[in-house]
């Protein structure tokens, strides 16, 4: 893909993210607790999640592995960062969902899978085609160091929050309850906060326009959903912690 074509694609990709961001403040994406019956056929929660997320690690690997013998150490580190998140998200996280988790509409699974295919292709393709940028010296660049630190901090927050939610599901398999501990002390959706930090860190570490577009997509998808979750908790639990914010501690 030429540089000019990539620029046009990225502009369209970012504008679509902005449209999704605006739409999700008025409608809740219909999966999980917001699943509806008006979107046609559905898949079991675990299966739908795997099908939706699996393209992200697989397509990214397909971009990188054919040139494995020629990649730089920096590209290898970035490859491990991406796969560390998405192998968990695609194949481990679904196993922590309730067996009775709500089904996911096929249209949502398909849309998520298409997004992950395109996003992994953009990010993997950019990474493998820019070896000149990602030489060994990039590992000591302040942008990579800061990005890696933010990525790791987000990874820890995201995983710790998922573990807390998994224990809640295990203890109360048929009902929702209020998460406690970890970053749940301060916000309703620290798992989403961690996810945003992961891809913000990835953007800084790669200093890549396609990574920046992905971060915007992550925020567009998760910020409105965090707002909906926070509202849902307050409406359904009389004694929900008053001091707990939506997504950003002490702020929102």
Describe the protein in words.
The chain is mainly alpha-helical. It folds into two domains: 1-28 and 141-252, no CATH class; 31-134, no CATH class. Helix content is 63%, strand content 2%. The chain is built from eight helices and two strands, in the order αβαααβαααα. The protein has a two-stranded antiparallel sheet with strand order 1-2.
Distance between the termini: 40 Å
Shape: globular
Broad structural category? mainly alpha
Helix content: 55-70%
Average pLDDT confidence is: 89
Report the β-strand fraction as a percent range: under 5%
Radius of gyration from the alpha-carbon trace, in angstroms: 19 Å
Largest sheet: 2 strands, antiparallel
Instruction: Write the element-wise H/E pattern from the N-terminal end onward.
Output: HEHHHEHHHH
Number of helices: 8
Give a summary of the structure in a few sentences.
With 252 residues, this protein is mainly alpha-helical. It has helices at residues 3-23, 45-53, 55-64, 73-92, 106-128, 142-171, 190-206, 209-236, and strands at residues 42-43, 104-105.
């Amino acid at each position: 893909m030429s540089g000019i074509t990539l620029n046009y694609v990225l502009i369209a990709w970012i504008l679509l993210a902005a449209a999704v961001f605006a739409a999700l403040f008025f409608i809740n994406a219909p999966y999980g607790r917001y699943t509806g019956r008006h979107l046609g056929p559905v898949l079991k929660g675990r299966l739908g999640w795997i099908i939706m997320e699996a393209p992200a690690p697989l397509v990214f690997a397909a971009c990188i592995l054919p040139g494995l013998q020629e990649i730089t150490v920096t590209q290898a580190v970035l490859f491990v960062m991406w796969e560390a998140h998405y192998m968990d998200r695609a194949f481990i996280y679904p196993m922590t969902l309730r067996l009775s988790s709500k089904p996911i509409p096929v249209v949502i699974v398909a849309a998520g899978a298409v997004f992950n295919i395109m996003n992994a292709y953009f990010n993997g393709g950019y990474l493998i085609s820019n070896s000149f940028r990602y030489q060994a010296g990039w590992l000591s660049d302040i942008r990579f160091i800061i990005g890696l630190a933010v990525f790791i901090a987000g990874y820890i927050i995201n995983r710790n929050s998922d573990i807390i939610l998994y224990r809640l599901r295990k203890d109360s398999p048929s009902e929702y309850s209020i998460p406690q501990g970890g970053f749940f002390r301060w916000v309703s959706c620290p798992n989403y906060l961690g996810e945003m930090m992961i891809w913000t860190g990835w953007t800084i570490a790669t200093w890549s326009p396609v990574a920046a577009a992905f971060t915007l997509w992550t925020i567009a998808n998760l910020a409105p959903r965090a707002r909906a979750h926070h509202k849902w908790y307050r409406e359904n639990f009389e004694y929900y912690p008053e001091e707990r914010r939506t997504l950003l501690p002490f702020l929102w």
